[in-house]
Amino acid sequence: MKRIAAEYLYTLDRQEPIVNGFVEYDEKDGTVFASGECEDPSAEEDFHAGMLVPGFVDAHCHIELSHLQGKFARGTGMAGFIDQINALRDSSDRESRMACIGKWMDRLWKQGVSAMADISNGDESFQSKASSPMYTRTFLEVFGSEPQDCASVMDSVRSLQKKALEYGLDAAPTPHACYTMSPELLTAASADALASGFLSYHSQESMEEEQMVMSGSGALYENRKRLGMSTPPVTGRPSVYYFLDRLEKARPAPFYEHILLVHEVCMTEDVADAVQEVMKNAYVALCPLSNIFIHDALPPVDMMRRKGLRLTVGTDSLSSNGTLDMVKEMYCLQSSFHGLETGEILTWACLNGASFLGKGDILGSIVPGKRPGLVLIENVSADGLLTPDSVSRRII
Asked: Which of 6, 127, 154, 318 has the fewest Cβ atoms nearer than 10 Å?
């Protein structure tokens, strides 16, 4: 058994920290034995300045885009960002892309990420995921704007799923977003995702997406038309309602599967109510640095908190982010939304992410019997807040 202590211990079975807290754990497999307050911090052999927290869960990442770091222009909006993806996605050879994936998987682990919900469009990340100590669930994202292509696209992604399963990965198809999929494909991919018990969906990421669905206008609509692609039906309502309609074509609501709505920059109170009415295990992935990079916007976090939505934190990708760093995402949220306590943000970044992935019995909090990983966050403020200089490193 080993023992470690820190100025602040966040067990996350409660949001308040234990000041001068300790954790006793099995150094072989990381199983937590006990935690509590130190009787005499000065007598602790392994005492650290900073926060001791559970391993993070990166709830939304595109690790296979790691080779694109530093190649994209900021502030282009969603239409401009998609143009850059199309132009630069294959700008490196396969071997280089796989090397970047391996490097960043290792870096995320060392920074303290114990689990990740990752988006894949191909097989390049499978080897790194299979060899990593990090738990990953792979969402095999589906695209296809033309209805006649639905069957062939689904055949292709199911073949990719078979390959992922051969690597021992948890993986299943998932829909991408309303503007990259025909109505038929959106329903077909959602049906496969629901059958797996887990669905991830890019939702209300930008006003361009909302304009496309609500009024058939805007930069993203014009982008799709210019490329000769079909666009989703104009409904006059926020795009989430269109997604809910397509979900119910797969099977009737309510949905008890774990459904992750990624971004939700444009979510309104009415949408939050509609989501919670039909999705009984709904989560929202916040990726603030990516949102700022693409269109200088942030999701309505205060409203989401007030509505009781289960929030998680993701890093998105190195095409829309300067780095993959959960602490920087959390600092962005804490500095952008007044009154956010560190324990609440850590609950999103650890416990809620573990719950979404169905790993809440193992990960997400420092309680006896769990193996969440232990992470030290250093360079925090005197009153226990994150700072621009805060960094994390894995203890176990």
From this structure: 127
